[in-house]
Design a protein that fits this description.
By secondary structure, this protein is mainly alpha-helical. It is built from 5 helices and no strands.
Length: 111
């Protein structure tokens, strides 16, 4: 993502290029959805509520909350996910599987 940020947003502060690339790549709506999910699912996993502001910006607090959730998911063996702090489709699917096991939502059907 650093490279994408540098290429797509060469004129902004280099420290912000990676965050801009994430929003550019994933879209603010996806990030908002993941922030809402992290606020709900973290306490269900025994983690503190990250109290993320649902602003569509995948900043350091969102990435840290994602990483903690990924660590729990990996420890529970629900998915072979990479603990990298990025809330992508693999993390989303693992969260859905976790919630399904809790009986919070029906298991997603395969397409």
């Amino acid at each position: 993502m650093k490279w994408v940020g540098a290429v797509v947003f060469p004129s902004i502060n280099p420290q912000l290029q990676q965050a801009a690339a994430i929003v550019y790549s994933f879209g603010q709506e996806f990030v908002r959805s993941s922030q809402t999910t992290l606020n709900i699912v973290s306490p269900l996993m025994g983690l503190p509520n990250p109290a993320l502001r649902v602003d569509g910006i995948n900043g350091p607090l969102t990435q840290a909350a994602t990483k903690k959730v990924q660590e729990v998911l990996k420890a529970k063996g629900l998915e072979q996910i990479v603990v990298d702090g990025w809330y992508g489709f693999q993390t989303r699917d693992a969260v859905n599987a976790f919630l399904a096991k809790l009986g919070q939502v029906p298991a997603p059907k395969a397409a």
